[in-house]
Design a protein that fits this description.
The structure is a homodimer of 332-residue chains. Chain A is of the alpha/beta class and 332 residues long. Helix content of chain A is 32%, strand content 23%. In chain A, the strands form 3 sheets. A 6-stranded mixed β-sheet of chain A has the order 1-2-4-3-5-6, with helices on both faces. Chain A has a 6-stranded mixed β-sheet with strand order 9-8-7-12-10-11. A two-stranded antiparallel sheet of chain A has the order 13-14. In chain A, helix 4 runs antiparallel to helix 5. The interface between A and B is large, with 66 and 66 residues. Chains A, B: GO terms for molecular function: glycerone kinase activity.
């Protein structure tokens, strides 16, 4: 299976070098796989940071920049960053107002962020954490106790980063991050397996006419392997689960994401988006904004996820605040 | 081969519906596959429009919006839009200052844009055209006489759209579009074939360890089928051809695009970007800006293209001007 890589063991290093080569406003923290803002932490503001295994690009380094993250740590593919690197990121990002870590709920990430935060805390940094667990598909999975953290994490980055940019204190930034977490749900589907650089082969087998509902972003098992469905059936299935889980009712207002898993063309995502918008219209749910694209991927997996976030005036304002990062730009 | 589609014959229609559902600032021109700005043509400004076969998303409807295109017409997959639809688009987009059509050099597109422009001209619209032929790989190919128009087209959209937004007249907007065309070159590579919705199977066969250099964006033949290469070798090969063709020399300034073909994850594009930036640095070429992502795709094809555009102060200013479209946002 031919890929655009050199040495599989240099995959993360070269990818991060490519990103900072393209974006001079970002830089790598020396000797780490951490990407931070080249202009340093914004003076006196809370720094929002994140991280996780690689293979989910543009997550998370693609969200470093004005109005979103102050830093992102990349582990090896599908592997948590080390506690040392997380501690270095947290210490480097602190501008004197404390650091909020946005952590996807995977055991390795949670453990290493805990240790990294503790290490940074011993250096005098005020650290808070929020754990994102938006995947409604499964409770307790291969790498988690509780639910997995997936694409909804990007909305948490946006809300927390925008709040930090207002000069709010760590408690306030943490509060809006938690508010976003409480109101967001996601479910995904795989049409194909992903291929990891090291292995060079599909990580799991899926028949030509099979799909896997509730897939994780590392190819870990979902809730059901089923026959091929139309795009509308996929959209309905994912959306129903998410709406039901969040208890979204007619008259409520939401932001949606139709997210590609990395190998799915944008045209197909728009076909799914069409049905998501149609269904929400039928349900009387007001769509404040709809994002369509690759936000939280699984290498070259074909498939998508559907995210719904209930929004109030505060979250809407934070989502609409200016941002400038490699993967998301929002104008005033 | 499972895909996120419903009826293959509704592919384009549903995709465009999904796009306008996500972006209320866009709308479809009634009874057509044309996407235009919902707020209508900008009064007194030249309208820049484009179009072509579907399957290249986000091209072209993804570039409709403030600072770029006033309209984009989508044909069936890999098929030119009809002259009737192009005429309807041109007439609808005209705000009294004339319309510039940006056309990729494919025989069907050129012929239908010619006819559409003539039809609109008979209705009193002042129409100009520029034909983009940036693909340095082949002269005269399966669907073209002369070179093919590929990813460089997006830079032409940006420059022409930004110039139109300044209130410049049709001659001036056409001049900057032609300047961009003269200074841009692109070459691509396929690692896999694409799968068209109608056929549901690869359009050509490529061995597991083969790649095709100089591929067209419809899977039409390139210049050489060769054994697998590393990402760096791919980057070197594509970049050398483009730099040589443009005659770029040390000390010149360029904007680059590492463009994904639709099925390639962003991580791999960044690995290619790393080498492109490194090589240009070695050559003493100054990279003013570097775009990395899916701009001109070929359905779900895995692969990439490398675009280089020589820029002067005028093109730099136009590329940096504000824009707000589904696929590209530029802040002030």
């Amino acid at each position: 299976m031919e890929k655009l890589i050199n040495d599989p063991t240099a995959y993360v290093d070269e990818m991060l070098d490519g990103m900072v080569a393209a974006r001079p406003e970002l830089r790598r923290l020396d000797g780490t796989e951490v990407v931070v803002r080249a202009d340093g932490p914004a003076d006196g503001q809370v720094a929002v940071v994140s991280g996780g295994g690689s293979g989910h690009e543009p997550s998370h380094a693609g969200y470093v920049g004005e109005g979103m993250l102050a830093g992102a740590a990349a582990g090896a593919v599908f592997t948590s960053p080390t506690a040392d690197q997380l501690a270095a990121m947290i210490e480097s990002a602190d501008a004197g107002a404390g650091v909020l870590c946005v952590v996807k709920n995977y055991e390795g990430d949670v453990m290493n962020f805990d240790t990294g935060a503790e290490m940074a805390g011993m250096e005098g940094v005020d650290v808070a954490q929020v754990v994102v667990d938006d995947d409604v598909a499964v409770e307790d999975s291969l790498y988690t106790s509780g639910r997995r953290g997936v694409c909804g994490t990007v909305l948490v980055h946006k809300c927390a980063g925008a709040k930090a940019a207002t000069g709010a204190d760590l408690d306030e930034v943490t509060r809006v991050a938690e508010k976003a977490v409480e109101n967001v749900g996601t479910m995904g589907v795989a049409l194909t397996s992903c291929v990891t650089p090291e292995k060079g082969e599909p990580t799991f087998e899926l028949g030509e006419d099979e799909i896997e509902l509730g897939i994780g972003i590392h190819g870990e098992p979902g809730v059901e392997r089923t026959d091929a469905m139309s795009a509308d059936e996929v959209a309905d299935t994912l959306l129903d689960e998410v709406l039901d889980d969040l208890g979204i009712e007619s008259g409520e207002e939401v932001v949606t994401i139709v997210n590609g898993m990395g190998g799915t063309p944008l045209s197909e995502l728009y076909i799914v988006q069409r049905r998501v918008a149609e269904r929400l219209g039928e349900e009387g749910v007001d769509v404040h904004d709809a994002w369509v694209g690759d936000y939280m991927t699984s290498l070259d997996m074909e498939g998508c996820s559907v995210t719904v976030c209930r929004v109030d005036d505060e979250l809407k304002e934070l989502l609409a605040a200016p941002a400038e990062t490699p993967a998301l730009t929002v104008r005033e």
